[in-house]
Write a structure and sequence with these properties.
The complex is a heterodimer of chains A (212) and B (543). Chain A has 212 residues and is mainly α. Chain A contains seven helices and one strand, in the order αααααααβ. The longest helix of chain A is centred in the N-terminal third of the chain and has 32 residues. The N and C termini of chain A lie far apart (63 Å). Chain B contains 13 helices and 23 strands. The chains are: A mainly alpha (212), B alpha/beta (543).
Chain lengths: 212, 543
């Protein structure tokens, strides 16, 4: 049991949130040093699992799945299902995977590096103040982490906040299942059966003259 | 009370697919297995507002044209009003393009038709004040209001640009109603639509072909005149022989648009037109290591940085239905002078849930509470007119180790002051229109229920990047035109300085932001410069 003073106990959550915020600021200078070395740490310790995605994903590795699985219920509190959240989680992760994969190779690399920092124990705890690993972090600890990033005076942490929050929320509300509560029904495009097979709505042909 | 409901869209012919079936020369480069070398009179890189306009004019004049597009070919059968596929398939970086510090989200198109395939149809001539400023300060001669008028007229005819005669949707009526109450001038937006169904799906690809984008106008026309189109093909490097651009070396992309297939395609041409737009254009020039003695390439990139204000009403507004933009206010655009404090144009933004959820800010219960009010909301935006004041020099494009663009757009007090004034104006208009609660789109802001409270909150806000949500839907500059070789990359006619055989015909040539949605500015200038190029290349004129 980690009895370090930076561990957040639910009963003194507010006090410790303030404490954690001060830690972030104190670690500001150290953070940039650690950030520079963290990628080095990753490579040296053989943790460069960068290119190996988790099963069935184009971008997400176990690091991303770990962090996003822990954060999603907190970021989407109020929207997250109280029962049978497994399916919602699978759908969300698949959606996030596609969304990030289709940004650019540069963005993919930056995000992989970010998630490396978020999951490597030294940086996860020293920089982000998460002393328990992601699956064990309590809701209060996760909220404290998110709020510290959001309110940080350091650009880097605000960027972490924006990256995580934006992708989770956007991918959630891109799913049709989430629209009923909003009163949103999109217009429906209906392609009627074509008279002429050549102009069917199959995927655009590979080259002119190819059959659709 | 909002009267809209969801519509079943049927009976729309996919005219692009029909054209391909008739024999248009259209090639998906991701399917190519072998390297290829092609030759033509003119190669056009990019099929957006500048590329499409140029392609039609040049191929009508009998010149052989090859169009290169890194985006996907998607046409009306594919446009099924689905945000997920639209953002992934039709936008730069899957709609995830950002400035390097994450402070500005940039919506820019990436598709056959470029940003015109996904824009919201608003069509404004370049403001006379902007044209005058370019002449006074940037040595831009020949583009006065009077000289540009026939080019704008021609493109307005070509693209069916007319003031919208439909009823503005409730989201837009907030702007007209509120401005009317406040005594702020406002007017109806001209739109490039023909037979619009008033659906509001413009940003996801027009499902009815009513929007007169390049996809359904100039590109079909060019293809009908024998032009060739290769898509999923990225221009990697311009080819330069002996101080002359002789074409472009391209790399085929996988269908996913992320990986390269390893297949290289070379296009040799008498003349090369870059129509890649801001950001991608300067990046191509930097990859190609073009001569840049005064280090102007990529500089002065403008984004119309957009602060926004959210409001909720008792009555339903359904801001995801109906033509997205039909009302605007120029009351504050040039109010304090052309080169005074930051001016802004007021409009509204459509609010489909995916886009809105990212814009709303916050998380957890607060975000949930906010988004549940979607059907009663209004999103007002202020297009700030960057680039006119010396404290607004815009951003800079550089390239990453992979050669991909990096956008750095610095903020300062000049911009923050403008955002603060824009927040106040938007709150005024929203409350005047009957809003029950309003909040500026800022991390630290809360909904307030009176204008007095709004003004107090705004005055106290720490307006600083990332804390204040800033969006961008218009990318301009980075390859400025002008009269002085020390401060411009191209001439007013679009000729690249320092090398023959290269023109830039797109929005990257603007020396400042436009101060209005830019598509018609690009169409007008493209029409002028492509027509001029026809003469110099010996094409048939007077078509």
């Amino acid at each position: 049991m980690n009895t370090d003073h930076r561990t957040i106990m639910p009963s003194v959550a507010m006090q410790d949130m303030a404490l954690q915020r001060r830690d972030f600021l104190r670690f500001g200078a150290t953070a940039s040093m650690l950030l520079a070395s963290a990628s080095g740490v990753a490579l040296l310790s053989g943790c460069s699992r960068h290119d190996i995605s988790a099963q069935g994903y184009q971008f997400l590795r176990s690091e991303e799945v770990t962090v996003l699985s822990a954060l999603a219920p907190v970021l989407l509190k109020g929207a997250w299902p109280t029962n049978n959240a497994g399916e919602a989680q699978t759908t969300l992760l698949r959606s996030i995977d596609g969304a990030i994969y289709h940004t650019s190779p540069d963005s993919q690399e930056k995000l992989h590096q970010l998630f490396d920092l978020l999951t490597l124990a030294p940086t996860r705890s020293l920089i982000f103040g998460l002393w328990r690993d992601w699956p064990e972090a309590s809701e209060a600890q996760l909220m404290a982490f998110i709020d510290s990033c959001r309110h940080s005076k350091l650009e880097f942490f605000r960027l972490v906040y924006m990256s995580l929050v934006r992708v989770v929320e956007m991918c959630w509300y891109l799913e049709p299942a989430t629209w009923a509560d909003l009163g949103y029904i999109p217009h429906k495009k209906i392609i009627d059966a074509p008279a002429d097979a050549k102009t069917s709505n199959a995927a655009h042909p590979l080259a002119s003259g190819d059959a659709a | 009370m909002s009267q809209y409901s969801s519509v079943d869209i049927r009976g729309v012919h996919d005219t692009f697919r029909e054209g391909i079936a008739r024999g248009w020369k259209v090639q998906n480069a991701s399917a190519l297995k072998q390297p290829l070398t092609l030759e033509c009179d003119v190669v056009i890189i990019g099929t957006g507002a500048g590329g499409g306009t140029s392609a039609e004019i040049l191929s009508q004049a009998g010149l052989s044209v090859i169009m290169i597009e890194e985006g996907l070919l998607r046409s009306s059968d594919d446009f099924n009003v689905d945000e997920r596929t639209a953002y992934r398939d039709l936008y730069q970086e899957g709609a995830g393009r950002n400035t390097v510090d994450g402070s500005i989200g940039i919506l820019q198109g990436r598709s056959v038709g470029g940003t015109t395939t996904v824009n919201w149809t608003s069509s404004f001539r370049t403001p006379p004040e902007t044209l005058q400023h370019w002449a006074d300060v940037h040595g831009v001669n020949g583009l006065s209001e009077k000289e540009m008028a026939p080019w704008f007229e021609k493109m307005e005819q070509r693209l069916h640009i007319e003031r919208w005669t439909g009823t503005p949707n409730p989201n837009n009526s907030v702007l007209s109603r509120g401005c009317e109450q406040m005594g702020y001038s406002w007017a109806v937006i001209p739109r490039n639509v023909n037979g619009c169904w008033d659906l509001g799906a413009c940003g996801l690809g027009c499902p009815t072909n009513a929007k007169q984008s390049m996809l359904v106008t100039t590109i079909p026309s060019a293809l009908g005149h024998g032009a060739q189109l290769l898509w999923r093909l990225r221009a990697q490097k311009l080819l330069v022989d002996n101080k002359r651009v002789s074409g472009v070396q391209c790399l085929a992309l996988h269908q996913d648009g992320i990986q390269e297939t390893g297949v290289s395609i070379t296009v040799r041409a008498r003349h090369t037109i870059m129509a890649c737009g801001g950001i991608n254009g300067p990046a191509l020039m930097l990859r190609s290591e073009l001569p840049d003695p005064h280090e102007r390439i990529g500089k002065r990139t403008f984004l119309h940085p957009v602060p926004s204000s959210l409001a909720a009403f008792d009555e339903e507004t359904q801001p995801y239905y109906g033509a997205p933009q039909s009302i605007y206010s120029d009351h504050f655009s040039f109010k304090q002078g052309v080169t005074g404090p930051l001016g802004y144009k007021l409009e509204v933004a459509p609010m489909q849930p995916g886009l809105m959820s990212a814009l709303l800010g916050g998380y957890g219960q607060q975000h949930r509470h906010d988004i549940l009010a979607l059907s009663h909301m209004n999103a007002m935006i202020a297009l700030t007119r960057d680039g006119f004041h010396e404290q607004s020099p815009g951003g800079t494009i550089s390239i990453s180790k992979r050669g991909l663009p990096v956008v750095d757009y610095p903020f300062n007090d000049y911009l923050y002051d403008g955002f603060r004034r824009a927040y106040i104006t938007m709150a005024e208009v929203q409350f005047a229109a009957g809003a029950k609660r309003v909040k500026p789109n800022h991390m630290d802001a809360m909904y307030v229920t009176s204008l007095e409270q709004a003004k107090q909150q705004i005055a106290a806000l720490n307006i600083v990047k990332v804390r204040t949500a800033v969006a961008c839907a218009h990318v301009m500059g980075g390859c400025a035109m002008g009269g002085d070789e020390k401060t411009s990359v191209v001439t007013v006619d679009g000729d690249f300085r320092g090398l023959d055989g290269l023109s830039v015909i797109d929005g990257s040539v603007f020396p400042t932001s436009i101060g209005a949605n830019p598509q018609l500015s690009i169409y007008g200038l493209a029409c002028r410069n492509a027509s001029g190029l026809v003469k110099r290349l010996g094409g048939k004129t007077g078509v």
